[in-house]
Each structure stands twice: as C-alpha cells, then as structure tokens.
Specification:
Elements: H1 3-10, E1 18-20, H2 27-36, E2 40-44, E3 53-56, H3 59-72, E4 77-82, H4 87-100, E5 105-111, H5 118-131, E6 137-140, H6 143-155, E7 165-167, E8 184-186, H7 189-204, E9 213-215, E10 219-221
Parallel strand pairs: 1-2, 2-3, 3-9, 4-5, 4-6, 6-7
Antiparallel strand pairs: 8-10
Helix pairs in contact: 3-4, 5-6
C-alpha cells in the first residue's frame, strides 16, 4: 500500500500521532500531515527537513564502514545484495566510498527489495557463485540474508572467510552466535525506538521537543565471517 493510501485510511480515525518507519516521500502527503497539527515521527530514513520529528541513523555511514572494513581485510572484489532503492542506495554509495579507500571495488549488485528470508540468502550465494565467481566478499543488506548465505556456503563445503567472506547489517541477536560468527553493522534499534517514544510523549503532553532531528551512531561488529587471521 502506498504511503498516501495509508495516510488517507488513517485520518478518519483522528490519530493523536503518527509514526512512519521511513521518511515520507510524497510532498503532498507531507503537507497534509503538517496541516493536521499532530505529532509526526519519521524513522530510519534521513532528510534535513522532517515533517515534525525524525529519529534515524545514516545508511551511507553503514555502507562506508563496511566497505572500509572489507577493504582493510584485503578483499578487493566485493558484492552487495539487498535493497537498492532509497535507503539501500545510500548504503551502496557508502560501501563504494569505503572500498575506494583501499583500492577495492564493488563488482556486482544483486537487488533484493522487500522483506526477505533465509532461503533468499541461500539463493543469493548461488547467484553470486554462478554469475560473479570473482567476488571475494559479500555485504548483505540484512543479517537474515547473510545467515542464509552462510548456511549455503557451509553446505557447499566452503571455508568462511577464506573462500568467501560474508557480512550482514543490523546485528540481530543471533549474529554473534553463528559459526562462524557474523560480521555486521550494529544499529541501535531499541534506543531509537525509545527515543522516538519519548519525543512523541513530550509532544502529546504539550511540551516542546528541543532536538526534533536525532541521528543515532552505528558501529561495526567485526567477527569471524570476514576477519582474516594471518
């Protein structure tokens, strides 16, 4: 369902506030929400002019951080699999920037839009091996996709990271417990949700929000799936 349809469907219920798990792209919808005069929270995506309030992190920074890491480990031909629109495009741009610091390059992008599951990660690894066997490391847009790729690599008898390095994004609970443990980007999802809730409550209680745009820091979690030893 388009964001314009979601907003149109919700307005008759006279919501006290609205939360979007992305930035609202439609200018007409943004203007409609501003005219309502209710608290509006946008999350995960970034733009400098939020409708009301925004809590997010930088997808560009997450890609750059991973590119820098993979390049520093000596990988030179990199693949990416995941979203490529909006936030995904920012992540890919950052990845290329980080790789360039080490003379590495992105040689294949495999788009996977929407919600994906472990079997999609399995299929993605097969696609990379069939179409781009030169790829040494793959950065997946989610830990779920990356875990599917790891399972498939182990099934094929590949050594991770010697034969293929695999990294994810999100630092879900299982990431550090996988074998090999999964290199990923830690995104403070809980803290972001907590901050968004506090900001909404302040607005709902008639108090001003001094910092309506909050960017949360992210961090690299380097683990066995990409870290070369010796």
């Amino acid at each position: 369902m388009l964001e314009t349809d979601v907003v149109s469907s919700a307005l008759p219920f006279r919501p006290a506030g609205v939360v979007f798990t992305n930035v609202v792209r439609s200018e007409a919808t943004r203007q409609s929400l501003q005219r309502l005069g209710i608290p509006v929270m946008e999350m995960w995506g970034i733009r400098p002019d939020p409708i009301d309030m925004l809590v997010a992190f930088s997808n560009h920074a997450s890609g750059r951080m991973m590119g820098d890491h993979l390049g520093s480990q000596g990988y030179r031909r990199i693949g990416y699999c995941g979203h490529t629109s909006e936030r995904g495009a920012e992540r890919v741009a950052g990845l290329e920037e980080g790789l360039a610091l080490h003379g590495a390059r992105l040689v294949k992008v495999l788009p996977m839009e929407g919600t994906r599951q472990i079997p999609d990660g399995v299929a993605a690894l097969d696609t990379f091996r069939a179409e781009s066997p030169e790829v040494e490391a793959i950065f997946f847009g989610t830990d779920i996709l990356a875990s599917g790729a790891i399972l498939r690599a182990l099934e094929l008898g590949l050594d991770i990271p010697r034969d293929i390095a695999i990294a994810g994004n999100g630092d879900l609970d299982f990431a550090e417990h996988m074998r090999p443990s999964l290199t990923t980007i830690h995104i403070p999802s809980y803290e972001m949700g907590l901050e968004a809730g506090r900001m909404l409550l302040r607005k709902l209680n008639g108090h001003p929000v001094e910092e309506p745009l909050m960017l949360h820091p992210i961090s690299l979690r380097p683990r066995q799936s990409t870290t070369r030893t010796g």
